[in-house]
Prior knowledge:
Layout: H1 21-32, H2 45-48, H3 66-69, E1 73-77, H4 79-90, E2 98-102, H5 104-109, H6 112-121, E3 126-129, H7 132-140, E4 147-149, H8 158-163, E5 166-170, H9 173-185, E6 190-197, E7 205-206, H10 210-217, E8 223-229, H11 241-259, E9 266-268, H12 272-277, E10 285-288, E11 311-316, E12 319-323, E13 328-329, E14 335-336, E15 341-346, E16 363-366, E17 369-374, E18 382-387, H13 391-396, E19 404-411, E20 414-416, H14 418-424, H15 429-435, E21 442-444
Parallel strand pairs: 1-21, 2-3, 2-10, 3-4, 4-5, 5-6, 6-7, 6-8, 8-9
Antiparallel strand pairs: 1-11, 11-19, 12-15, 13-14, 15-18, 16-17, 17-18, 19-20
Helix pairs in contact: 4-6, 14-15
The structure holds pyridoxal-5'-phosphate.
The site of pyridoxal-5'-phosphate has 13 residues, from helix 12 and strand 10.
Amino acid sequence: MENLPNGFTGFANRPDGFESAGEASRRRRAAAAGGQAAPLHYAREAASSGRKERLPFQPVELEDGRPHESRMAWTQIDLSAIRYNVAQSRRFLQPRCRLMAVVKADAYGHGAVEVSKAAIGAGADRLAVSNVLEAVALRKAGITAPILVLSQPAKTSIPQLLGYNIIPSVYEPDFAVSYGEVADLHGMTAPYHLAVNTGMNRIGVRYDDVVEFLHQVSFHRALELEGVYTHYATADCAETLDLQIQTKRFIDALESINAAGFDPGVVHAANSAAAFRYPSVHFDMVRMGIALYGLHPCPETRNIVELMPAMSVHARICDARPLGVSEGVSYGLHYRSPGSVKICTIPIGYANGLRRGLSGNTDFIIGGRYVRQVGAICMDQCMFEVDMRRSAVRELIDPQPGDEVLVVGSQGIAEITIDEMAEKLSTVNYEIACGFSQQLPRVFV
Ligand SMILES: *Cc1c(COP(=O)(O)O)cnc(C)c1O
């Protein structure tokens, strides 16, 4: 066997006589250079002499390459699935109960503007986001539905709250007073929702301190209590006692608010899990996130409602090569070819949300058939194996560069779900869905 010019040692136990085309040409070049291993370089005619005059590129050719590259790896969001899931959720609500679509974190990685429009169009009444920036982006996109920020913003964003008609969650008197003062200065009212901590201990005024809070801020004429809400820590858990305790505390808080002569406005508590599992806690509005994306918050809801996943993840093969027996693949060469396989590369990796912890432990779908992801998942590429031994397989799939691969989604009877990825990684489907938004262009259908 020839000396390899670059000292590459990635080929283990190579069968005799195996030589790739690239190696053959390097060998020939080495021979031409006097029998010594020549340094790897390309002979470029243009480098020698007689350079042609440069032809400048057209501006359009230099534009951001993403529209062209976008079809190499992308997420596809099925807005009709969003509409279906809104309609499915609505069926569980009394006609007067409002539905707030939670579109925080760019709609769980699905695209907040498009999802918000689809959800509102399908019967959602309001929107919720996690911060003021997200809310402003929706307003700038022309969305006029009421928007609640699910946390108390910084005082510096009070002008944006008022200027863009965004409702904050409030739980500190100091913020409330500043908010009211700026509103007053501009001849406006300052609507807010009071966040009540009934046991999750994340944000909010303690359930037994709400009246004191209201007395502290009620002197301010511009402040307007538009709603009161709490959030459940265990709505997705099999156990139900803690949810009952939180509900009891919330109802106590509401009763004390009413008894003190305040109008709580729109009362809400339920997330997706609670909305499906506990109709008694719907109050005036439910806040639904995960279900609108077609993902179940917990196993229990699977028997209650049928949902349609909106996100699928796609990529096109950018490299495909047959690989001899025992050759390795990817960092660490942990995968070794059993022989007679084709290794294909797709341009998606952990920077795009395909978590490295799934290395060697997820399948992809090509032509309606499962193929096995092999080797370590890289930052923005990963590989899969196609077994070429079984003739049935060979006839049906012989993938080529440019062929489309499904990373998440279903094709025929084959299906790869965000849920199974989450389970393998001991995390929640929420996290996997959010992850796929990073660096991947989105296509809406
Ligand atoms: C994220 C969130 C929701 C939505 O929860 P899902 O489980 O996605 O339905 C509702 N309320 C609050 C306060 C949240 O932070």
